[in-house]
Write a structure and sequence with these properties.
The protein has about 325 residues and is mainly β. It is built from 1 helix and 19 strands. It folds into 2 domains: about 5-120 and about 285-315, Immunoglobulin-like, CATH 2.60.40; about 135-275, Immunoglobulin-like, CATH 2.60.40.640.
């Protein structure tokens, strides 16, 4: 049996589908022999896979079908990550595709499948405040004699929810009520991934955002320092939500540098990066999810042994 299939999706190659948006296109297929199919199924699927490995006859006929689905609203984006963290090799992928399946009667008949992957942008729902908020932390220095022995840091941020590619503005004030001369302050934007495979604890991976690092001058004993900062967020940095296997978050780290043999004082300010889906993508009465109509989704599967932790999830 020979089947030729072409799946066309009406979307520019450099554009991504938004959660809640309609996915439509055309499927053309040709069959070069007389055959009866028990069922032809067209479906839209989302799939997430996380793998964490520890190191140690001649009658041509042509047919055309229209494909028309609506993406659910609260879904993660298309995503690929491969890297190392400590003693782990991490491979993670979330992807979406349109599939057509030709099924024949009979136990030994193997279905014929064709699919086309589509790029989907993830949903984003802010959970942090958009109004100004203040964070603070204190560290005490051990002294043999009485007197002031505390270092206080207070930081404020105007808005903790930032659109992609925009500027995050914040500031801090440090009061050094000790005799210790502080070496300075480091300020940077950081990214953290959290990977969760069944059978394994959450694996976190931290990294600095390139170009965001600043370092200030020293702070003498009894002195203070007050500064404001503005960091431009790269366009490829977005918070990832609504996934059971991976999340991606961001925070501003302010680190007060102490002399050698003393532990630094660190204050982290969480932020969320993303654009909320506009009203033009939302439906007042959305139709049922495609998997509710098709009834084809399988439950998550887990394959693993002593050194592999794999989670295979339908989105």
């Amino acid at each position: 049996m020979s089947i030729f299939c072409e799946i066309d999706v009406y979307k520019l190659d450099d554009e991504e589908f938004k959660p809640g948006e309609e996915v439509f296109g055309l499927i053309r297929y040709a069959i070069n022999e007389k055959i009866v199919f028990h069922k032809i199924t067209v479906s839209l699927k989302g799939h997430g896979r996380l793998r964490i490995i520890t190191k140690d006859r001649k009658n041509n006929r042509e047919y055309t079908n229209r494909e028309d689905f609506r993406l659910p609203e609260n879904i993660p984006p298309s995503f690929v990550h491969c890297g190392n963290k400590g003693g782990y090799l991490i491979k993670c992928k979330i992807f979406y595709y349109i599939r057509i399946k030709f099924s024949r009667c009979g136990v030994l008949s193997v279905p014929k499948r064709f699919k086309k992957e589509i790029i989907v942008g993830g949903a984003f729902t802010p959970t942090l405040p958009r109004s100004p908020i203040i964070y603070g932390k204190q560290k005490k220095i051990v002294k043999l004699f009485s007197g002031n022995n505390t270092i206080n840091i207070k930081a404020d941020i105007e808005n903790s929810v930032i659109n992609v590619g925009e500027i995050v503005t914040f500031g801090y004030e440090i009061l050094n009520n000790t005799y210790v001369k502080l070496k300075g302050v480091k300020v940077k934007l950081m990214e953290v991934y959290s990977f969760k495979a069944k059978g394994l604890h959450s694996v976190k991976k931290f990294s600095n955002i390139e170009g965001s690092l600043s370092r200030t001058a020293a702070i003498t004993g009894g002195g203070n320092q007050k500064l404001d900062f503005a960091i431009i967020l790269p366009f490829d940095k977005k918070t990832i939500q609504y996934s059971k296997i991976v999340s991606r978050n961001y925070f501003l780290r302010i680190k007060v540098l102490f002399p050698i043999f003393r532990q630094n004082l660190t204050l982290d300010i969480p932020i969320e990066v993303g654009n909320e889906i506009g009203a033009e993508y939302m439906s007042l009465a959305p139709p049922p999810s495609y998997w509710e109509v098709m009834g084809e989704c399988e439950k998550s599967k887990l394959f693993g042994d002593d050194d592999k932790f794999i989670t295979d999830e339908e989105i």
